[in-house]
Amino acid sequence: MYKTKLQELCLQQSWSLPKYSSVKDGPDHMPRFTGTVFVNGLPFHTPNACRSSREAQNEAARLAYDHFSASRTPPREPPRLPPLPPPSDDGSYDSAGTRSSSDYYLPIWSMSS
Questions:
Q1: Which DSSP state fits 96?
Q2: List of the chain residues with pLDDT < 70
Q3: Predicted local distance difference test score (pLDDT) of residue 92
């Protein structure tokens, strides 16, 4: 249900919870409902009448959820680090302010049969 999704979105954004209303129209044996939801100060109305108040409110919630989901910017990629400059002849990076390769010790493994 979009009402749940919209409520979760409001909680994530630290907005107040959605406020719903519906209006009944037509005879009792065949009622039609329109729904409205107010989210973050904006009203969203169902464009068409629905068969139940619940369906009308869910349709309004869908419109609001789609609106706010589309307007949210996707997460940015983390910044990329620039490549290291090429090492000097001895393999050090001293000119870049980093340690030289002689400062690192790697284990040497040998296999005997």
A1: G
A2: 71-113
A3: 57
